[in-house]
Task: inverse folding
């Protein structure tokens, strides 16, 4: 499992002289996923979340997580300024942080410019902060703070070009490399090669303000935004009233959408909701991702929350599928099978031993005695004891 | 390309209604009789851990809570539960108020724990924290240092093992500090 | 396997709780290989019979965290408290999803929402220890004792606190 090795977080600032940036960074993060806002949108109660996060929440319970007022996905509005703030902050973050950490390290070394190996800086910095907080002598602290201020200033000047360079790099008018082609007639839409020809038949060559469904996404269109070209977002997916569709119709719909159509009905509904959220959140993006990337994200969802995760109900559905990959299944569950076989052997040995006393001596030296019904070997080797309920 | 399923006709709907009525009636009758309202099931109706064990070995991916819930509802029939799982119907999620009579970590719960301290986690019910975290060895050395040791307030490392170690250290410190304080308080009272 | 939204968010919370821990709280995953299983220590709140004690609890997170709340259970010695089941499971409104209200008394605003966090849960549990909610006792005996024989309740809690510390 690919674990996040380490992730940037607002607490990164806490051990540096710039600890006041921690709350700033925190306000630039979505309170649902704790990450920087990704396609921030505004609810009708004026709270901002990532487009995908709030869509998932709304399809789950239909309320704003902050104030619990009822809201609908259709009412979400893009929050461009927040997106810009986040982007600019992210650009500035690395240089600022490395500077702040250098400074923190320098302070702990008592002004020596001894280079610290990078991973240790954090902890050294933290010691420094603690020390400061508990410093008995306010005089020395004041002095240190002042000298630190000067140093930061000097260092800032040294590093400044770097920062500028970064913000230049981030010019937004680049064409996204998403495998799409823009319409040669200049209507501004981007699409796959395959769709292009059908599109050319109908294209008027004029920039359409909002194709097809103004009610669902015209409202989310940017009202105005300086210097940036907007690509018309792909069309939004409407919600489906699942109870109106029979299984067959639903599956047909899934095939039209190009998403997997296996699994129980409940799973299908959950998958469609997730797909709709992924898709519609992508529509909020300034640079929409290509569909295959969204399909990848759906796959991840499938593995972690959907049908490909552990609950057996859906796994059983998978086995009964026609195109079930037998080899893969048996190889990926090899360990489980082996363990089950071993357990079964142990158990039958135990049974033999309890019924036929003579067998005990024979099997004792090669099979360890099972620990009885209350201790079972779990998959990872640690014995787990079932304890009867407390008092 | 794909034919829609034939729509339901009236006789089949009627049959369905009758069948579901009986199923529901049977279900509720059986469910209500043993204990009325309140927390489900009395203490006498505990699930046999061996049965739970048996099923969770067959289907390690199911949570024990679900298994116990199903076993309790079908009166402890392993065969019925197995049948249900194999038929692909899956197990129902137990209601939040369901308190299993047998405590056991769920099958998809704790992964392998690297430290000896954590290894004792699941069997710790009814233990005190000192034995739970294997701190008895540290008691003697710590009491000598007494309160002089300043507990580290925060810790984070780039490295996974290091993080684990720091967390454990903070945990141990917290327990030992509380114990020291408690002992001091009692000594103060005794005098 | 790619890490899910839940894992990432839990990692954020873990980091936050480690770098900037609130007073009297230590929490983190038992092993980083399974971010969905945590263990937490909380200190007993001051000026209550729980004062001076340290309580261990396990937290289990659902795969769709933070949409659904985790469950919390005290381990290693029971906690004698009206809102804690005899097996240690904590019954507190912040751990209940807003959809279901088994007790019909909680305000939706007190219940789980994706913007809540492990830290907020643990802080709520600390204040729950100080002020039991009498309306929906999870441990009826403890609730009765708390209501009718307060000195006995407090003595029992103090004894358990000492036992928990191995004294």
Result:
């Amino acid at each position: 499992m690919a674990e996040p090795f380490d992730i940037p977080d607002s607490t990164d600032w806490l051990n540096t002289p710039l600890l006041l940036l921690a709350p700033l960074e925190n306000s630039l993060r979505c309170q649902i996923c704790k990450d920087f806002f990704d396609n921030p949108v505004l609810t009708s109660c004026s709270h901002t979340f990532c487009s995908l996060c709030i869509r998932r929440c709304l399809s789950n319970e239909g309320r704003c997580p902050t104030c619990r007022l009822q809201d609908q996905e259709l009412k979400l509005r893009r929050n461009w300024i927040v997106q810009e703030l986040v982007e600019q902050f992210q650009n500035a973050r690395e240089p600022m942080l490395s500077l702040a950490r250098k400074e923190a390290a320098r302070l702990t070394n008592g002004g020596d410019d001894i280079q610290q190996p990078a991973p240790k800086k954090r902890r050294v910095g933290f010691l420094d902060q603690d020390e400061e907080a508990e410093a008995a002598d306010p005089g020395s602290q004041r002095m240190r703070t002042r000298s630190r201020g000067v140093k930061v200033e000097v260092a800032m000047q040294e590093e400044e070009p770097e920062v500028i360079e970064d913000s230049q790099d981030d010019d937004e008018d680049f064409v996204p490399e998403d495998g799409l082609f823009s319409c040669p007639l200049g209507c501004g839409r981007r699409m796959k090669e395959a769709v292009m020809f059908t599109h050319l038949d109908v294209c008027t060559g004029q920039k359409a303000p909002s194709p097809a469904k103004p009610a669902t996404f015209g409202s989310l269109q940017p009202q105005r935004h300086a210097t940036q070209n907007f690509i018309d977002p792909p069309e939004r997916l409407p919600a489906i009233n699942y109870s109106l569709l029979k299984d067959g119709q639903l599956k047909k719909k899934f095939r039209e959408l190009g998403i997997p159509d296996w699994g129980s009905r409940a799973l299908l509904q959950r998958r469609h909701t997730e797909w709709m959220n992924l898709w519609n959140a992508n529509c909020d993006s300034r640079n929409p991702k290509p569909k295959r990337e969204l399909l990848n994200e759906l796959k991840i969802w499938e593995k972690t929350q959907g049908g490909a995760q552990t609950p057996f109900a859906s796994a059983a559905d998978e086995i009964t599928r026609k195109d079930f990959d037998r080899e893969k299944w048996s190889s990926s569950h090899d360990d489980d099978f082996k363990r089950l076989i071993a357990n079964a052997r142990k158990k039958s040995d135990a049974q033999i031993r309890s019924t036929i006393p003579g067998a005990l001596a024979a099997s004792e030296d090669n099979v360890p005695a099972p620990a009885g019904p209350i201790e079972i070997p779990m998959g990872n080797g640690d014995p787990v004891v079932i304890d009867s309920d407390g008092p | 390309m794909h034919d829609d399923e034939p729509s339901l006709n009236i006789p089949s709907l009627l049959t369905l209604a009758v069948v579901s009525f009986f199923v529901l009636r049977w279900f509720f009758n059986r469910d209500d009789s043993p204990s009325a309202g309140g927390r489900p099931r009395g203490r006498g109706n505990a699930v046999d851990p061996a049965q739970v064990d048996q099923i969770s070995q067959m289907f390690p991916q199911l949570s024990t809570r679900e298994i116990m819930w199903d076993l309790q509802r079908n009166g402890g029939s392993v065969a019925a539960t197995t049948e249900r799982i194999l038929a692909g119907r899956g197990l129902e999620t137990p209601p939040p108020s369901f308190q299993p009579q047998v405590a056991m970590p769920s099958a998809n719960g704790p992964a392998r724990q690297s430290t000896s301290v954590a290894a004792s986690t699941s069997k710790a019910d009814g233990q005190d924290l000192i034995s739970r975290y294997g701190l008895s060895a540290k008691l003697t050395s710590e009491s000598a240092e007494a309160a002089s040791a300043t507990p580290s307030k925060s810790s984070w490392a780039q490295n996974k093992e290091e993080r684990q170690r720091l967390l454990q250290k903070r945990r141990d410190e917290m327990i030992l500090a509380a114990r020291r304080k408690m002992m001091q308080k009692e000594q103060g009272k005794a005098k | 396997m790619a890490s899910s939204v839940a894992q990432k968010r839990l990692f954020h919370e873990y980091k936050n709780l480690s770098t900037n821990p609130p007073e009297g709280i230590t929490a983190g995953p038992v092993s980083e290989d399974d971010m969905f299983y945590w263990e937490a220590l909380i200190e007993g709140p001051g000026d209550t019979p729980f004062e001076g004690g340290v309580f261990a609890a396990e937290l289990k997170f659902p795969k769709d965290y933070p949409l659904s709340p985790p469950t919390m259970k005290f381990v290693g010695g029971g906690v004698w408290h009206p809102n804690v089941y005899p097996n240690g499971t904590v019954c507190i409104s912040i751990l209940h999803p807003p959809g279901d209200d088994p007790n019909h008394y909680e305000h939706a605003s007190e219940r789980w929402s994706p913007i809540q966090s492990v830290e907020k849960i643990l802080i709520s549990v600390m204040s729950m220890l100080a002020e039991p909610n009498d309306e929906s006792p999870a441990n009826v005996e403890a609730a009765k004792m708390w209501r009718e024989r307060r000195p006995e309740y407090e003595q029992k809690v103090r004894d358990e606190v000492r036992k928990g510390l191995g004294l």
